[in-house]
User: What shape does this take?
Amino acid sequence: MRVLWFSLVALILTGGTWLRAGETPPSPDSLFLEGSALYNQTNYPAAEAKFLELLDAGYRQGEVWFNLGNCQIKQGRTGEAILSYRRAELALPRDPDVEANLRFARRSTGAAVVDYSWWIDLGMMVSQRHWQALTTGSYWLAALLWVGGLLYTPARTVLFRGAVVAGLGLVLSLGGQAAWWQWHHHPEAVVVEKNLRTRFAPMDDATLAFALPEGSTVVVEDRAGEWVRVRSGADSGWVRQSAVPMVAPWTNPH
Assistant: This one.
């Protein structure tokens, strides 16, 4: 169980909505520590409720998703745990604890994973917000150095070279953001039901297609009412959307 310290200021910056007239809002610190204490007491349902309360309030950082996944896997809900770990991984790329728990959970169910192209995998090794920050910083640094070189002749060569380096950083960051855009364009979802069977059409009486182990990662290709068509490797089939929550809830299939 990972214990971190939070602040009310951070919650407000992330859009938290705890404040109500006549109420004293619980602090993120206290909720997180209460959840951690309950987890250590093996009261996993109560601990899960605390972390869900943090998420519902808008505090959706990777550490919260990670600890939520720990609670879920302890209760035998491996598919939901994999979903939470995957969300944590997107916020905390390369985190060894997240990667280890996600790998363990997937192996326990034989879950399938999406095989992305190398450049998407490479781009997603850095979080989206970090790519965005690098893009902004590189752009303004390149512009300032270039203008500085035009205005200050004695250091023109050095400043122009710095502008070129910053420009390369800008190109790199744009490539990273393009990888994330491609990932969002083909929404990823996780199977949270055991022994899920896909169908050839979005109907309960349609012919069964192929099975998906719990915790498998799939790509959502289409939607028809409460049904979505998912792809796993070269196979595609229809399942109810409730069986495959999207990793990033803000994305929608096209």
